[in-house]
Amino acid sequence: MNLISAKNISKKYSKLALDPDHIFRIQRIEKEAVAGFDLEIEEGEIVGFLGPNGAGKTTILKMLSGIIYPTSGEAIVMGQKNQLWWDLPAIDSFSLLKEIYEIPEAKYKKKLKTLMDVLSMHDIVNRRLRNLSLGERMKCELAACLLHEPKVLFLDEPTIGLDIITAQSIRNFIKEINKIQRCTIILTSHYMGDIEELCRRVVIINHGMKVYDGDFKALIKKYAPEKIVKINLGEKKDREKFAKIKIDKKIEDGVGIIKVPIKKLSGLAKEIFGKFNAEHITIQDPDTEDVIAKIYKGKELDIK
Amino acid sequence: MDWYILFNIFDRLQSGVKALSRDGKMKKYLKIAKIVLKNAYIRDSKIIGNVTSNLLVSLTEVAITLTMFSTIFKNTDSLAGWNIYQVVFLYTLMKGITLINGVYARRGLADMAKKLIRTGEYDFYATKPVNSMFLVSMSKPKIYNLLTLFFVAILSVYCVVKSGMPISLVSIFFFVLFLLVGIILFYFINVVSVIPAFWFIRLFSLSDVVNRFTQLMRYPAGIYPMATKIVLFTIIPVLVVTYFPAWQLFNAPNYLYLLYAVIITLIFGIVANYLWKIGEKHYGSASS
Lengths: 304, 288
Fold this sequence. Notes:
The structure holds 2 protein chains of 2 kinds.
Chain A lengths: L1 E17 L7 E17 L3 E5 L6 H8 L7 E6 L12 H11 L4 H14 L15 H13 L5 E5 L7 H18 L2 E5 L3 H7 L2 E6 L2 E7 H8 L2 E7 L3 H8 L5 E4 L2 E7 H14 L5 E4 L3 H10 L7
Parallel strand pairs in A: 3-6, 3-7, 5-6
Antiparallel strand pairs in A: 1-2, 1-4, 7-8, 9-11, 9-12, 10-11
Chain B lengths: L1 H21 L2 H20 L3 H28 L8 H21 L1 H14 L2 H5 L5 H6 L7 H19 L5 H26 L2 H4 L4 H11 L10 H8 L4 H13 L4 H28 L6
Helix pairs in contact in B: 1-14, 3-8, 4-8, 4-9, 4-13, 5-9, 9-13, 9-14
Keywords (chain A): ATP-binding, Nucleotide-binding, Transport
Protein name (chain A): ABC transporter domain-containing protein
GO molecular function (chain A): ATP binding; ATP hydrolysis activity
Protein backbone atom coordinates (compact mmCIF):
# COMPACT_ATOMS: atom_id res chain seq x y z
CA MET A 1 0.00 0.00 0.00
CA ASN A 2 1.41 3.38 -1.01
CA LEU A 3 1.47 5.77 1.90
CA ILE A 4 3.01 8.57 -0.11
CA SER A 5 2.11 9.34 -3.66
CA ALA A 6 3.40 12.46 -5.36
CA LYS A 7 2.59 13.05 -9.00
CA ASN A 8 4.47 15.59 -11.05
CA ILE A 9 4.81 18.09 -8.20
CA SER A 10 6.60 21.36 -8.91
CA LYS A 11 7.46 24.39 -6.87
CA LYS A 12 8.29 27.77 -8.31
CA TYR A 13 9.31 30.73 -6.17
CA SER A 14 8.72 34.12 -7.71
CA LYS A 15 9.48 37.64 -6.61
CA LEU A 16 9.12 41.11 -8.07
CA ALA A 17 12.27 43.17 -8.53
CA LEU A 18 13.36 46.30 -10.33
CA ASP A 19 14.75 45.62 -13.79
CA PRO A 20 18.44 46.71 -13.63
CA ASP A 21 18.30 47.82 -17.28
CA HIS A 22 15.06 49.80 -17.04
CA ILE A 23 14.75 51.47 -13.67
CA PHE A 24 10.98 52.05 -13.95
CA ARG A 25 10.20 48.52 -15.03
CA ILE A 26 9.37 45.79 -12.56
CA GLN A 27 10.20 42.26 -13.52
CA ARG A 28 9.09 38.97 -12.08
CA ILE A 29 11.97 36.67 -11.22
CA GLU A 30 11.05 33.01 -11.05
CA LYS A 31 13.09 30.17 -9.67
CA GLU A 32 12.05 26.58 -10.07
CA ALA A 33 13.01 24.79 -6.87
CA VAL A 34 11.39 21.47 -7.81
CA ALA A 35 10.38 20.32 -11.28
CA GLY A 36 7.98 17.45 -12.09
CA PHE A 37 8.80 15.24 -9.13
CA ASP A 38 7.15 11.82 -8.85
CA LEU A 39 7.41 9.56 -5.84
CA GLU A 40 5.67 6.55 -4.42
CA ILE A 41 6.58 5.11 -1.04
CA GLU A 42 5.07 2.05 0.59
CA GLU A 43 4.14 1.51 4.22
CA GLY A 44 7.11 0.67 6.44
CA GLU A 45 9.84 1.79 4.01
CA ILE A 46 12.79 3.92 5.09
CA VAL A 47 13.82 6.12 2.20
CA GLY A 48 16.84 8.42 2.18
CA PHE A 49 16.79 11.71 0.30
CA LEU A 50 20.24 12.65 -0.93
CA GLY A 51 21.45 15.68 -2.79
CA PRO A 52 23.85 18.58 -2.52
CA ASN A 53 22.88 21.73 -0.62
CA GLY A 54 20.14 23.64 -2.44
CA ALA A 55 19.11 20.61 -4.49
CA GLY A 56 15.49 20.84 -3.35
CA LYS A 57 15.36 18.02 -0.78
CA THR A 58 13.81 20.08 2.00
CA THR A 59 11.37 21.76 -0.39
CA ILE A 60 10.12 18.33 -1.52
CA LEU A 61 9.93 17.17 2.08
CA LYS A 62 7.90 20.24 3.02
CA MET A 63 5.54 19.74 0.10
CA LEU A 64 5.05 16.11 1.06
CA SER A 65 4.39 17.02 4.68
CA GLY A 66 1.88 19.70 3.68
CA ILE A 67 3.86 22.66 5.05
CA ILE A 68 4.07 24.33 1.66
CA TYR A 69 1.80 23.95 -1.32
CA PRO A 70 3.16 22.72 -4.65
CA THR A 71 2.81 25.20 -7.54
CA SER A 72 1.44 22.29 -9.58
CA GLY A 73 0.94 18.57 -9.19
CA GLU A 74 -0.50 16.53 -6.39
CA ALA A 75 0.92 15.12 -3.18
CA ILE A 76 -1.03 12.79 -0.92
CA VAL A 77 0.60 12.01 2.40
CA MET A 78 -0.60 10.54 5.65
CA GLY A 79 1.59 12.00 8.39
CA GLN A 80 3.06 15.06 10.01
CA LYS A 81 6.16 16.78 11.31
CA ASN A 82 6.59 18.04 14.84
CA GLN A 83 8.41 20.55 16.94
CA LEU A 84 8.68 21.38 20.64
CA TRP A 85 8.11 24.63 22.50
CA TRP A 86 11.35 26.30 23.43
CA ASP A 87 10.52 27.80 26.83
CA LEU A 88 8.84 24.76 28.33
CA PRO A 89 9.96 21.37 29.62
CA ALA A 90 9.34 18.69 27.01
CA ILE A 91 6.73 17.03 29.24
CA ASP A 92 4.52 20.15 29.01
CA SER A 93 4.84 20.20 25.23
CA PHE A 94 3.95 16.52 25.22
CA SER A 95 0.77 17.18 27.21
CA LEU A 96 -0.16 19.91 24.71
CA LEU A 97 0.48 17.55 21.80
CA LYS A 98 -1.67 14.95 23.56
CA GLU A 99 -4.61 17.36 23.35
CA ILE A 100 -3.77 18.53 19.82
CA TYR A 101 -3.70 14.95 18.53
CA GLU A 102 -6.52 13.81 20.86
CA ILE A 103 -4.54 10.89 22.29
CA PRO A 104 -6.48 9.00 25.01
CA GLU A 105 -4.91 9.33 28.49
CA ALA A 106 -4.05 5.64 28.98
CA LYS A 107 -2.55 5.29 25.51
CA TYR A 108 -0.56 8.51 26.01
CA LYS A 109 0.93 7.34 29.31
CA LYS A 110 1.86 3.96 27.87
CA LYS A 111 3.41 5.46 24.75
CA LEU A 112 5.30 8.10 26.71
CA LYS A 113 6.77 5.46 29.02
CA THR A 114 7.87 3.33 26.08
CA LEU A 115 9.49 6.30 24.35
CA MET A 116 11.22 7.45 27.52
CA ASP A 117 12.56 3.93 28.10
CA VAL A 118 13.78 3.43 24.54
CA LEU A 119 15.33 6.88 24.31
CA SER A 120 16.62 6.92 27.92
CA MET A 121 15.12 10.31 28.55
CA HIS A 122 13.58 10.02 32.02
CA ASP A 123 15.98 12.66 33.39
CA ILE A 124 15.43 15.26 30.71
CA VAL A 125 11.69 15.55 30.13
CA ASN A 126 11.16 17.82 33.13
CA ARG A 127 13.91 20.26 32.22
CA ARG A 128 13.23 23.26 30.04
CA LEU A 129 13.99 22.61 26.41
CA ARG A 130 16.35 25.55 26.14
CA ASN A 131 18.49 24.08 28.94
CA LEU A 132 18.98 20.77 27.13
CA SER A 133 21.88 19.77 24.91
CA LEU A 134 21.32 19.30 21.18
CA GLY A 135 21.27 15.52 21.51
CA GLU A 136 18.80 15.63 24.39
CA ARG A 137 16.56 18.02 22.43
CA MET A 138 16.69 15.70 19.44
CA LYS A 139 15.54 12.81 21.62
CA CYS A 140 12.63 14.92 22.88
CA GLU A 141 11.77 15.97 19.31
CA LEU A 142 11.66 12.35 18.22
CA ALA A 143 9.48 11.40 21.17
CA ALA A 144 7.14 14.31 20.35
CA CYS A 145 6.98 13.18 16.73
CA LEU A 146 5.98 9.68 17.71
CA LEU A 147 3.51 10.27 20.54
CA HIS A 148 0.54 10.10 18.19
CA GLU A 149 1.97 7.14 16.25
CA PRO A 150 2.20 8.81 12.86
CA LYS A 151 2.15 6.66 9.75
CA VAL A 152 4.85 8.79 8.14
CA LEU A 153 7.85 10.41 9.77
CA PHE A 154 9.87 13.10 8.01
CA LEU A 155 13.34 13.53 9.44
CA ASP A 156 15.39 16.39 8.05
CA GLU A 157 19.00 15.71 9.02
CA PRO A 158 18.16 14.07 12.35
CA THR A 159 21.79 13.58 13.43
CA ILE A 160 23.23 16.93 12.40
CA GLY A 161 25.58 18.31 15.04
CA LEU A 162 25.37 15.23 17.26
CA ASP A 163 28.32 13.30 18.67
CA ILE A 164 28.96 9.78 17.37
CA ILE A 165 27.32 7.99 20.33
CA THR A 166 24.16 10.10 20.34
CA ALA A 167 23.90 9.86 16.55
CA GLN A 168 24.18 6.10 16.80
CA SER A 169 21.50 5.92 19.50
CA ILE A 170 19.18 8.04 17.32
CA ARG A 171 19.81 5.72 14.36
CA ASN A 172 19.09 2.67 16.52
CA PHE A 173 15.89 4.28 17.69
CA ILE A 174 14.76 5.05 14.13
CA LYS A 175 15.34 1.39 13.18
CA GLU A 176 13.50 0.21 16.27
CA ILE A 177 10.48 2.44 15.70
CA ASN A 178 10.31 1.43 12.05
CA LYS A 179 10.24 -2.19 13.14
CA ILE A 180 7.70 -1.77 15.95
CA GLN A 181 5.27 0.69 14.35
CA ARG A 182 5.78 -0.11 10.66
CA CYS A 183 6.24 3.63 10.36
CA THR A 184 7.27 4.93 6.94
CA ILE A 185 10.33 7.14 7.30
CA ILE A 186 11.80 9.64 4.91
CA LEU A 187 15.06 11.17 5.95
CA THR A 188 17.52 13.58 4.51
CA SER A 189 21.08 13.52 5.70
CA HIS A 190 24.52 14.54 4.62
CA TYR A 191 25.97 11.79 6.80
CA MET A 192 26.38 8.69 4.75
CA GLY A 193 26.47 6.69 7.98
CA ASP A 194 22.78 7.49 8.46
CA ILE A 195 21.88 6.50 4.93
CA GLU A 196 24.02 3.35 4.82
CA GLU A 197 22.67 2.08 8.11
CA LEU A 198 19.02 2.98 7.71
CA CYS A 199 17.99 3.15 4.06
CA ARG A 200 17.76 0.37 1.55
CA ARG A 201 16.21 2.78 -0.94
CA VAL A 202 17.52 6.25 -1.77
CA VAL A 203 16.22 9.09 -3.89
CA ILE A 204 18.88 11.43 -5.24
CA ILE A 205 17.77 14.94 -6.04
CA ASN A 206 19.72 17.56 -7.92
CA HIS A 207 18.51 20.91 -9.26
CA GLY A 208 14.99 20.07 -8.08
CA MET A 209 14.81 16.88 -10.13
CA LYS A 210 14.98 13.22 -9.26
CA VAL A 211 18.12 11.77 -10.73
CA TYR A 212 18.00 8.36 -9.07
CA ASP A 213 15.43 6.32 -7.22
CA GLY A 214 16.36 2.81 -6.20
CA ASP A 215 18.54 0.47 -4.22
CA PHE A 216 21.39 2.16 -2.38
CA LYS A 217 23.84 -0.74 -2.72
CA ALA A 218 23.18 -1.03 -6.47
CA LEU A 219 23.98 2.65 -6.80
CA ILE A 220 27.27 2.31 -4.96
CA LYS A 221 28.19 -0.77 -6.97
CA LYS A 222 27.46 1.03 -10.21
CA TYR A 223 29.35 4.19 -9.35
CA ALA A 224 32.18 2.61 -7.44
CA PRO A 225 33.14 -0.45 -9.50
CA GLU A 226 36.45 -0.61 -7.71
CA LYS A 227 38.07 -1.66 -4.46
CA ILE A 228 40.70 0.12 -2.44
CA VAL A 229 43.78 -1.84 -1.51
CA LYS A 230 45.88 -0.40 1.32
CA ILE A 231 49.34 -1.62 2.20
CA ASN A 232 51.23 -0.53 5.27
CA LEU A 233 54.69 0.44 4.00
CA GLY A 234 56.64 0.58 7.24
CA GLU A 235 59.91 -0.76 5.85
CA LYS A 236 62.11 0.56 3.05
CA LYS A 237 62.07 -2.72 1.10
CA ASP A 238 58.24 -2.63 1.10
CA ARG A 239 58.27 0.91 -0.35
CA GLU A 240 60.66 -0.25 -3.08
CA LYS A 241 58.44 -3.22 -3.92
CA PHE A 242 55.37 -0.93 -3.96
CA ALA A 243 57.08 1.42 -6.45
CA LYS A 244 57.50 -1.48 -8.86
CA ILE A 245 53.76 -2.28 -9.03
CA LYS A 246 52.54 -1.23 -12.49
CA ILE A 247 49.17 0.33 -11.74
CA ASP A 248 47.94 3.81 -10.66
CA LYS A 249 48.83 4.23 -7.01
CA LYS A 250 49.79 6.74 -4.32
CA ILE A 251 51.35 6.85 -0.86
CA GLU A 252 49.69 8.75 1.99
CA ASP A 253 51.18 8.83 5.52
CA GLY A 254 53.23 5.71 4.89
CA VAL A 255 50.28 3.77 3.45
CA GLY A 256 50.28 2.70 -0.17
CA ILE A 257 46.85 3.10 -1.76
CA ILE A 258 45.72 1.41 -4.95
CA LYS A 259 42.29 1.88 -6.51
CA VAL A 260 41.70 -1.25 -8.49
CA PRO A 261 38.77 -2.16 -10.75
CA ILE A 262 36.94 -5.23 -9.37
CA LYS A 263 37.76 -7.20 -12.57
CA LYS A 264 41.48 -6.79 -11.95
CA LEU A 265 41.34 -7.37 -8.19
CA SER A 266 42.14 -11.07 -8.15
CA GLY A 267 45.23 -10.59 -10.32
CA LEU A 268 46.49 -7.74 -8.20
CA ALA A 269 45.71 -9.56 -4.94
CA LYS A 270 47.82 -12.51 -6.08
CA GLU A 271 50.72 -10.15 -6.81
CA ILE A 272 50.63 -8.14 -3.60
CA PHE A 273 50.01 -11.07 -1.28
CA GLY A 274 53.12 -12.61 -2.85
CA LYS A 275 55.18 -9.47 -2.23
CA PHE A 276 53.92 -8.13 1.12
CA ASN A 277 53.14 -9.49 4.56
CA ALA A 278 49.38 -10.29 4.67
CA GLU A 279 49.04 -8.50 8.04
CA HIS A 280 49.91 -5.23 6.30
CA ILE A 281 47.25 -5.51 3.59
CA THR A 282 43.61 -4.40 3.73
CA ILE A 283 41.05 -4.43 0.93
CA GLN A 284 38.01 -2.22 1.32
CA ASP A 285 35.11 -0.59 -0.47
CA PRO A 286 35.52 3.04 -1.49
CA ASP A 287 34.22 5.67 0.93
CA THR A 288 30.50 6.14 0.29
CA GLU A 289 30.81 9.87 0.64
CA ASP A 290 33.35 9.96 -2.17
CA VAL A 291 30.99 7.99 -4.37
CA ILE A 292 28.08 10.29 -3.64
CA ALA A 293 30.26 13.34 -4.28
CA LYS A 294 31.18 11.80 -7.62
CA ILE A 295 27.49 11.34 -8.41
CA TYR A 296 26.65 14.94 -7.45
CA LYS A 297 29.38 16.19 -9.76
CA GLY A 298 28.20 13.97 -12.64
CA LYS A 299 25.64 15.41 -15.04
CA GLU A 300 23.06 12.65 -15.04
CA LEU A 301 22.69 9.15 -13.76
CA ASP A 302 21.89 6.43 -16.18
CA ILE A 303 20.45 4.06 -13.58
CA LYS A 304 16.71 4.55 -13.07
CA MET B 1 -37.97 42.87 11.39
CA ASP B 2 -34.84 43.82 13.37
CA TRP B 3 -35.68 41.22 15.98
CA TYR B 4 -36.21 38.59 13.33
CA ILE B 5 -32.77 39.17 11.73
CA LEU B 6 -31.09 39.29 15.13
CA PHE B 7 -32.79 36.09 16.21
CA ASN B 8 -31.75 34.40 12.97
CA ILE B 9 -28.08 35.37 13.45
CA PHE B 10 -28.04 34.17 17.06
CA ASP B 11 -29.79 30.99 16.01
CA ARG B 12 -27.09 30.29 13.41
CA LEU B 13 -24.30 31.11 15.85
CA GLN B 14 -25.90 28.76 18.37
CA SER B 15 -26.10 25.99 15.74
CA GLY B 16 -22.41 26.53 14.95
CA VAL B 17 -21.44 26.29 18.61
CA LYS B 18 -23.61 23.17 19.02
CA ALA B 19 -21.96 21.57 15.97
CA LEU B 20 -18.54 22.32 17.44
CA SER B 21 -19.59 20.85 20.79
CA ARG B 22 -21.10 17.77 19.18
CA ASP B 23 -17.93 16.61 17.43
CA GLY B 24 -15.84 17.45 20.48
CA LYS B 25 -13.88 20.22 18.76
CA MET B 26 -14.95 22.87 21.23
CA LYS B 27 -13.80 20.66 24.11
CA LYS B 28 -10.50 19.98 22.36
CA TYR B 29 -9.84 23.68 21.71
CA LEU B 30 -10.75 24.58 25.29
CA LYS B 31 -8.37 21.91 26.58
CA ILE B 32 -5.56 23.22 24.36
CA ALA B 33 -6.23 26.77 25.55
CA LYS B 34 -6.20 25.57 29.17
CA ILE B 35 -2.85 23.81 28.77
CA VAL B 36 -1.30 26.74 26.92
CA LEU B 37 -2.43 29.14 29.66
CA LYS B 38 -1.23 26.75 32.37
CA ASN B 39 2.15 26.47 30.67
CA ALA B 40 2.33 30.26 30.39
CA TYR B 41 1.59 30.53 34.10
CA ILE B 42 4.37 28.05 34.93
CA ARG B 43 6.77 30.02 32.73
CA ASP B 44 5.76 33.45 34.06
CA SER B 45 5.87 32.37 37.69
CA LYS B 46 9.61 31.91 37.24
CA ILE B 47 10.13 35.45 35.97
CA ILE B 48 8.49 37.50 38.70
CA GLY B 49 10.75 40.50 38.02
CA ASN B 50 9.49 40.69 34.46
CA VAL B 51 5.86 40.37 35.59
CA THR B 52 6.23 43.11 38.22
CA SER B 53 7.96 45.54 35.88
CA ASN B 54 5.27 44.95 33.25
CA LEU B 55 2.55 45.65 35.80
CA LEU B 56 4.28 48.85 36.92
CA VAL B 57 4.70 50.07 33.33
CA SER B 58 1.03 49.36 32.56
CA LEU B 59 -0.20 51.12 35.69
CA THR B 60 2.08 54.09 34.99
CA GLU B 61 0.58 54.34 31.52
CA VAL B 62 -2.92 54.33 33.06
CA ALA B 63 -1.87 57.06 35.52
CA ILE B 64 -0.42 59.25 32.74
CA THR B 65 -3.61 58.88 30.68
CA LEU B 66 -5.75 59.82 33.71
CA THR B 67 -3.59 62.93 34.20
CA MET B 68 -4.12 63.81 30.54
CA PHE B 69 -7.91 63.43 30.82
CA SER B 70 -7.89 65.45 34.03
CA THR B 71 -6.02 68.26 32.22
CA ILE B 72 -8.45 68.17 29.27
CA PHE B 73 -11.49 68.32 31.55
CA LYS B 74 -10.10 71.30 33.41
CA ASN B 75 -10.71 73.18 30.16
CA THR B 76 -14.05 71.67 29.18
CA ASP B 77 -17.04 70.07 30.90
CA SER B 78 -17.60 67.35 28.36
CA LEU B 79 -16.32 65.65 25.24
CA ALA B 80 -19.12 65.20 22.69
CA GLY B 81 -21.59 65.19 25.61
CA TRP B 82 -19.59 62.71 27.73
CA ASN B 83 -18.39 63.71 31.19
CA ILE B 84 -14.93 62.89 32.56
CA TYR B 85 -16.07 59.68 34.27
CA GLN B 86 -17.76 58.40 31.11
CA VAL B 87 -14.67 59.18 29.04
CA VAL B 88 -12.36 57.50 31.56
CA PHE B 89 -14.76 54.53 31.57
CA LEU B 90 -14.42 54.39 27.77
CA TYR B 91 -10.65 54.43 28.21
CA THR B 92 -10.76 51.59 30.77
CA LEU B 93 -12.87 49.64 28.31
CA MET B 94 -10.26 50.12 25.61
CA LYS B 95 -7.49 49.21 28.01
CA GLY B 96 -9.40 46.17 29.28
CA ILE B 97 -10.13 44.82 25.80
CA THR B 98 -6.53 45.27 24.65
CA LEU B 99 -5.33 43.58 27.86
CA ILE B 100 -7.69 40.64 27.32
CA ASN B 101 -6.50 40.42 23.72
CA GLY B 102 -2.96 40.46 25.06
CA VAL B 103 -3.70 37.54 27.39
CA TYR B 104 -4.26 35.11 24.54
CA ALA B 105 -3.44 36.60 21.15
CA ARG B 106 -1.37 39.73 20.88
CA ARG B 107 2.14 38.35 21.24
CA GLY B 108 1.42 35.30 19.10
CA LEU B 109 0.08 37.51 16.32
CA ALA B 110 2.99 39.94 16.72
CA ASP B 111 5.34 36.97 16.25
CA MET B 112 3.45 36.09 13.12
CA ALA B 113 4.10 39.58 11.74
CA LYS B 114 7.77 39.67 12.67
CA LYS B 115 9.19 36.19 12.88
CA LEU B 116 7.20 33.05 12.16
CA ILE B 117 7.06 33.39 8.37
CA ARG B 118 10.58 34.78 7.98
CA THR B 119 12.25 32.05 10.04
CA GLY B 120 10.01 29.21 8.87
CA GLU B 121 8.79 28.59 12.43
CA TYR B 122 5.27 28.65 11.02
CA ASP B 123 5.96 25.03 9.91
CA PHE B 124 5.06 23.97 13.44
CA TYR B 125 1.60 25.51 13.22
CA ALA B 126 0.95 24.49 9.61
CA THR B 127 1.27 20.81 10.37
CA LYS B 128 -0.94 20.47 13.41
CA PRO B 129 -4.47 19.08 13.20
CA VAL B 130 -5.74 22.26 14.81
CA ASN B 131 -6.80 25.57 13.26
CA SER B 132 -3.44 27.29 12.65
CA MET B 133 -4.88 30.76 13.25
CA PHE B 134 -6.00 29.64 16.69
CA LEU B 135 -2.70 27.96 17.46
CA VAL B 136 -0.57 30.93 16.35
CA SER B 137 -2.77 33.31 18.37
CA MET B 138 -2.49 31.14 21.46
CA SER B 139 1.22 30.49 21.10
CA LYS B 140 2.46 33.22 23.46
CA PRO B 141 -0.10 34.08 26.08
CA LYS B 142 0.60 36.89 28.50
CA ILE B 143 -1.52 35.97 31.47
CA TYR B 144 -0.01 38.52 33.81
CA ASN B 145 -2.05 41.07 31.87
CA LEU B 146 -4.83 39.89 34.17
CA LEU B 147 -3.12 41.71 37.07
CA THR B 148 -3.39 45.05 35.27
CA LEU B 149 -6.89 44.11 34.17
CA PHE B 150 -7.89 43.75 37.80
CA PHE B 151 -6.89 47.37 38.57
CA VAL B 152 -8.47 48.63 35.35
CA ALA B 153 -11.74 46.82 36.20
CA ILE B 154 -11.85 48.52 39.62
CA LEU B 155 -11.27 51.89 37.95
CA SER B 156 -14.05 51.25 35.41
CA VAL B 157 -16.58 50.33 38.12
CA TYR B 158 -15.59 53.48 40.04
CA CYS B 159 -16.13 55.59 36.90
CA VAL B 160 -19.57 54.08 36.22
CA VAL B 161 -20.67 54.79 39.78
CA LYS B 162 -19.28 58.38 39.70
CA SER B 163 -20.67 59.12 36.22
CA GLY B 164 -24.09 59.82 37.77
CA MET B 165 -25.83 58.05 34.88
CA PRO B 166 -28.80 55.78 35.62
CA ILE B 167 -27.80 52.18 34.80
CA SER B 168 -30.44 49.48 34.43
CA LEU B 169 -29.96 45.70 34.57
CA VAL B 170 -31.05 45.51 30.92
CA SER B 171 -28.29 48.00 30.03
CA ILE B 172 -25.74 45.88 31.89
CA PHE B 173 -26.93 42.74 30.08
CA PHE B 174 -26.65 44.39 26.67
CA PHE B 175 -23.33 45.95 27.66
CA VAL B 176 -21.95 42.46 28.35
CA LEU B 177 -23.24 41.24 24.98
CA PHE B 178 -21.62 44.18 23.18
CA LEU B 179 -18.42 43.65 25.14
CA LEU B 180 -18.16 39.98 24.11
CA VAL B 181 -18.78 40.86 20.46
CA GLY B 182 -16.23 43.69 20.77
CA ILE B 183 -13.53 41.38 22.15
CA ILE B 184 -14.07 38.94 19.27
CA LEU B 185 -14.10 41.74 16.69
CA PHE B 186 -10.91 43.25 18.09
CA TYR B 187 -9.22 39.85 17.80
CA PHE B 188 -10.24 39.50 14.14
CA ILE B 189 -9.07 43.06 13.34
CA ASN B 190 -5.67 42.11 14.77
CA VAL B 191 -5.60 38.86 12.81
CA VAL B 192 -6.41 40.61 9.53
CA SER B 193 -3.60 43.10 10.19
CA VAL B 194 -0.92 40.36 10.34
CA ILE B 195 -2.10 38.16 7.47
CA PRO B 196 -0.11 40.11 4.81
CA ALA B 197 3.01 38.64 6.47
CA PHE B 198 2.33 35.50 4.38
CA TRP B 199 3.15 37.59 1.31
CA PHE B 200 5.58 40.18 2.66
CA ILE B 201 7.53 37.77 4.95
CA ARG B 202 8.23 40.38 7.58
CA LEU B 203 5.65 42.92 8.56
CA PHE B 204 5.65 45.66 11.13
CA SER B 205 3.81 48.51 9.51
CA LEU B 206 0.26 47.25 9.07
CA SER B 207 -0.08 45.76 12.53
CA ASP B 208 1.50 48.95 13.86
CA VAL B 209 -1.15 51.03 12.07
CA VAL B 210 -3.85 48.98 13.81
CA ASN B 211 -2.13 49.69 17.13
CA ARG B 212 -2.33 53.42 16.35
CA PHE B 213 -6.02 53.09 15.54
CA THR B 214 -6.48 51.33 18.87
CA GLN B 215 -5.59 54.62 20.54
CA LEU B 216 -8.71 56.16 18.95
CA MET B 217 -10.89 53.67 20.83
CA ARG B 218 -10.60 55.73 24.01
CA TYR B 219 -12.62 58.75 22.83
CA PRO B 220 -16.38 59.15 22.23
CA ALA B 221 -17.32 58.77 18.54
CA GLY B 222 -18.92 62.23 18.57
CA ILE B 223 -15.56 64.03 18.61
CA TYR B 224 -14.51 62.67 15.22
CA PRO B 225 -15.41 64.23 11.85
CA MET B 226 -17.91 62.27 9.75
CA ALA B 227 -15.30 60.77 7.34
CA THR B 228 -13.16 59.52 10.24
CA LYS B 229 -16.24 58.13 11.94
CA ILE B 230 -17.17 56.16 8.82
CA VAL B 231 -13.67 54.65 8.66
CA LEU B 232 -13.68 53.81 12.39
CA PHE B 233 -17.08 52.13 12.21
CA THR B 234 -16.55 50.22 8.96
CA ILE B 235 -13.05 49.74 7.49
CA ILE B 236 -11.15 49.58 10.78
CA PRO B 237 -14.15 49.28 13.10
CA VAL B 238 -12.37 50.00 16.38
CA LEU B 239 -15.22 52.19 17.60
CA VAL B 240 -17.59 49.22 17.41
CA VAL B 241 -15.25 47.51 19.86
CA THR B 242 -15.43 50.11 22.65
CA TYR B 243 -17.84 52.92 21.85
CA PHE B 244 -20.86 50.66 21.25
CA PRO B 245 -20.60 48.81 24.61
CA ALA B 246 -19.93 52.02 26.55
CA TRP B 247 -22.78 53.84 24.80
CA GLN B 248 -25.04 50.88 25.52
CA LEU B 249 -24.32 51.01 29.24
CA PHE B 250 -25.43 54.62 29.51
CA ASN B 251 -28.43 54.40 27.14
CA ALA B 252 -31.49 52.29 26.35
CA PRO B 253 -30.83 49.08 24.35
CA ASN B 254 -30.30 49.64 20.66
CA TYR B 255 -30.82 46.43 18.71
CA LEU B 256 -29.67 47.93 15.45
CA TYR B 257 -26.30 48.71 16.99
CA LEU B 258 -26.07 45.14 18.28
CA LEU B 259 -27.09 43.75 14.92
CA TYR B 260 -24.47 45.87 13.20
CA ALA B 261 -21.78 44.80 15.70
CA VAL B 262 -22.60 41.12 15.18
CA ILE B 263 -22.67 41.43 11.39
CA ILE B 264 -19.37 43.29 11.14
CA THR B 265 -17.77 40.78 13.55
CA LEU B 266 -19.01 37.92 11.36
CA ILE B 267 -17.68 39.68 8.25
CA PHE B 268 -14.26 40.21 9.84
CA GLY B 269 -14.25 36.63 11.10
CA ILE B 270 -15.04 35.24 7.65
CA VAL B 271 -12.53 37.55 5.95
CA ALA B 272 -9.80 36.67 8.50
CA ASN B 273 -10.33 32.92 8.04
CA TYR B 274 -10.52 33.19 4.26
CA LEU B 275 -7.42 35.37 3.90
CA TRP B 276 -5.50 33.17 6.36
CA LYS B 277 -6.23 30.10 4.21
CA ILE B 278 -5.13 31.90 1.04
CA GLY B 279 -2.04 33.18 2.87
CA GLU B 280 -1.12 29.64 3.93
CA LYS B 281 -1.00 28.63 0.27
CA HIS B 282 1.58 31.36 -0.32
CA TYR B 283 3.70 30.25 2.60
CA GLY B 284 7.12 29.23 1.31
CA SER B 285 8.74 28.22 4.62
CA ALA B 286 12.46 28.79 5.13
CA SER B 287 15.47 26.73 4.27
CA SER B 288 16.61 24.18 6.82
